[in-house]
Design a protein that fits this description.
Elements: H1 3-24, H2 29-46, E1 61-64, H3 70-79, H4 85-89, H5 119-138, E2 146-151, H6 152-156, H7 159-170, E3 175-181, H8 198-204, E4 208-213, H9 217-229, E5 235-240, H10 260-263, H11 266-269, H12 273-279, H13 292-322, H14 324-335, H15 354-368, E6 372-376, H16 386-392, E7 405-407, H17 412-425, E8 429-435, H18 439-452, E9 457-461, H19 479-488, E10 499-501, H20 506-518, E11 524-527, H21 543-547, E12 555-558, E13 565-569, H22 573-586, E14 591-595, H23 599-604, H24 607-613, E15 620-623, H25 632-635, E16 640-642, H26 653-660, H27 664-676
């Protein structure tokens, strides 16, 4: 390796980074300039990818955690032919290919959207798990490395503890992470907020830790060679780097290690942009120029990659010819094909919780889906994801990547981000579970899954105050309304950013899972009961077939041609309304009961469908176990919505139903009082 050439290329990249931010008049140049040497060495000497086939399945993956360091990634990828200089000039502009923080775009070399610190490297852990699971099934012919870059901020985010613990526990030797330790944060120096021994922490988690000068290309290369040889542990390369490397003032004085270069253009930080460009070997009048040394470095790597990739693909072709059945199975994994699943045949005991009905479905999926990873935040026997364990065979372990259940421990956010990474890798499906109230912990990862349009499945049990004696900390009240906001937000493809389903009985639960598995456009959340629920009455004798109408988001479970009142709910509240409707019928009041398991899907239906189901000229009464606004989009402001306006309490579920007004008797009183005002 020619150190002079490497340093020259790295400085060229720094000029581009600083210039991108300068042109945009916003951005984060300092961190980009500190981490550049690592990315320059990685992409020009080590990362294996196909320049002509960016979606090649066996490519190495690189996951960026600090998304604000996007100028660094864009400039390197430009040298790899993924972006043009004109693309760089449009940094942070409307509909440009170079947004402020990287957004998933595999064809351009962006493996993950990043921005919220911490999640990017945890997705890398998930991708590394996926790679090992696939290699365990098909052999090392599809193996590759997963690289990540993390910053001081990412290290501080609590999610890093979960990632470090799990990656070390599983011995993910295919995971190599560079810690850009530049000692500077956005608002202060790192030593003001932490004095921990990062190396000791990761060693305690069973990581191979290497400490180097993170701006020295030879030391970086040596560390990467060491990491690649490691067979038992993930590797953390602690690179001691220089924040704003190369920055100088107008009179040529050093301006490195300054907080101001973190989030400001160089010219607004106290340094001189022009003098910094000159100090880095560039021409301020032509800052977009690519040096000959840089061109040669990346052109040479492109030629090397042609040979490396050709050899790898030839090995794969030979394996494919020798193993046609395995090859066909692998391709089905890559394509995300689902096997035939007879959902209707899945049997449920009568009157069970919907979490138990979900367990029955997961058991079937466990027998059919060899490429699905399910996880739980130490609640598998309570959220009933253990149904998958019982059938899939085993739990993931350092010596068993054929296992398909990941015991995450008490770490909801870590778990959700890992599952995001598993799905991002490709070839694997992912689901994870916890109590619904703890979806609060998962929300940042749910949002990222929605942004990236990842078909992750979230399993949330204990859906209401009926958790009972566990009390208000465990009783979701506002959570359904919060998570359903994701159904109102469109993703960049113009579709609902999430599908949220709260099934009313076993039949709806089965179909909810069917819809979740068939939904490839967004994440899906299933909100499930702990308490037993009776099956809803079947109008035509086939409850499953009737429940298939869930694809419309809402449908009638009790009907009449000209109702006096329309009763609307979802989940276990539907059964309450059905029983109220029976009493009303006995008293001569005609009612229609509508189950709305997905508010988002329902609101997507044509107005004609919605008006026919819930006529505007009819009184509408809605019942929800959460806050009233949960069903507001469905029924509108003219309806009466009976919900909770307070937190839960600790008491048996039946007592709480009585105290909170969730009995048939109290609901009847509410309906009659409402009708009396119409």
């Amino acid at each position: 390796m020619d150190a002079n050439q490497m340093n020259k290329a790295a400085d060229n990249l720094r000029i581009l980074e600083a210039t991108m931010v300068e042109a945009a008049k916003s951005g984060h140049p300092g961190g980009s300039m500190s981490g550049t040497d690592f990315l320059n060495v990685l992409y020009s000497k080590f990362l294996v990818y196909d320049p002509e086939d960016p979606e090649w399945f066996a490519r190495d993956r690189f996951f960026l955690d600090p998304g604000h360091m996007s100028p660094m990634l864009y400039s390197v990828l430009a040298m790899c032919g993924k972006y043009s200089i004109d693309d760089l000039k449009q940094f942070r502009q409307w509909q440009s290919a170079t947004p402020g923080h990287p957004e998933l775009d595999v064809k351009r070399g962006i493996e993950n959207s990043s921005g919220p610190l911490g999640q990017g490297h945890v997705m890398a852990v998930g991708a590394a798990i996926a790679e090992r699971c696939i290699a365990a099934r098909f052999g090392e012919v599809v193996s590759h490395k997963t690289y990540a870059l993390i910053s001081d901020g990412g290290i501080q985010e609590e999610i890093s503890q979960g990632a470090g613990r799990i990656a070390g526990l599983l011995g993910l030797s295919n995971l190599i992470m560079f810690f850009d330790s530049n000692k500077v944060q956005l608002a202060t120096m790192v030593d003001v907020v932490t004095n921990e021994d990062t190396a000791a922490k990761y060693r305690a988690w069973n990581w191979n830790v290497i400490e180097i000068d993170g701006n020295d290309p030879l030391e970086i290369a040596g560390a990467l060679e060491n990491a690649i040889k490691e067979t038992k542990r993930p590797t953390l390369i602690i690179g001691n780097t220089v924040m704003g490397k190369g920055c100088v003032t107008a009179d040529g004085k050093n301006f490195e290690f300054k907080c101001s270069t973190h989030g400001n253009p160089i010219s607004k930080s106290g340094a001189s942009y022009e003098k910094t460009v000159e100090n880095l070997g560039g021409d301020p009048n032509d800052p977009w120029a690519v040096f000959e040394e840089t061109k040669q470095l990346y052109a040479s790597r492109k030629e090397e990659l042609k040979g490396i990739v050709a050899k790898r693909k030839a090995e794969f072709a030979a394996w494919k010819q020798a193993n046609p059945e395995l090859a066909a199975e692998l391709q089905s994994w890559i394509d995300g094909k689902l096997p035939e699943i007879d959902y209707k045949s899945i049997a449920h005991k009568p009157g069970i919780p919907t979490r138990t009905a979900s367990e029955d479905v997961l058991a079937e999926l466990g027998t059919k889906l060899n490429n699905m990873i399910v996880s739980s935040a130490d609640l598998s026997n309570s959220d009933k994801t253990e149904g998958f364990i019982k059938k899939c065979g085993s739990v993931l372990a350092p010596d068993n990547f054929n296992g398909r259940f990941l015991q995450s421990g008490v770490a909801e956010l870590t778990m959700a981000s890992i599952i995001n990474g598993i799905v991002l890798h490709g070839g694997m499906m992912g689901a994870c579970g916890t109590f619904f109230v703890f979806s609060d912990y998962m929300k940042p990862a749910i949002r990222m899954a929605a942004l990236m349009e990842l078909p992750v499945k979230y399993v949330w049990s204990h859906d209401s105050f009926r958790v009972g004696e566990d009390g208000p900390t465990h009783e979701p009240v506002e959570q359904e309304a919060q998570i359903r906001l994701m159904e109102e937000i469109k993703n960049h493809s113009g579709k609902n950013s999430m599908l949220v389903l709260r099934p009313a009985d076993s039949a709806e639960t089965t179909i909810a899972w069917k819809m979740a598995m068939e939904n490839t456009d967004s994440p899906t959340g299933l909100i499930l009961t702990r308490q037993n629920v009776e099956e809803l009455p079947a109008k035509n004798g086939d409850r499953y077939e009737e429940a298939l109408q869930m694809v419309h988001g809402g449908y009638s479970v009790v009907d009449c041609d000209d109702p006096d009142v329309v009763l609307v709910g979802n989940g276990s509240d539907v059964l309450l309304l059905v029983k109220a409707a029976e009493q009303l019928k006995a008293e001569g009041v005609r009612s229609r009961v509508v189950s709305v398991p997905s508010v988002g899907l329902y609101m997507n239906q044509p107005e004609e469908y919605r008006n026919a189901l819930i006529p505007r000229d009819k009184p509408v009464f809605a019942k929800t176990s959460g806050i009233s606004s949960t069903l507001l989009p469905v029924v509108g402001t003219d309806a009466k919505i009976s919900g909770l306006d307070h937190f839960g309490y600790s008491a048996p579920a039946k007592v709480l139903e009585e105290k909170f007004g969730y009995t048939v008797e109290h609901t009847l009183v509410e309906i009659k009082e409402f009708l009396a005002t119409r």
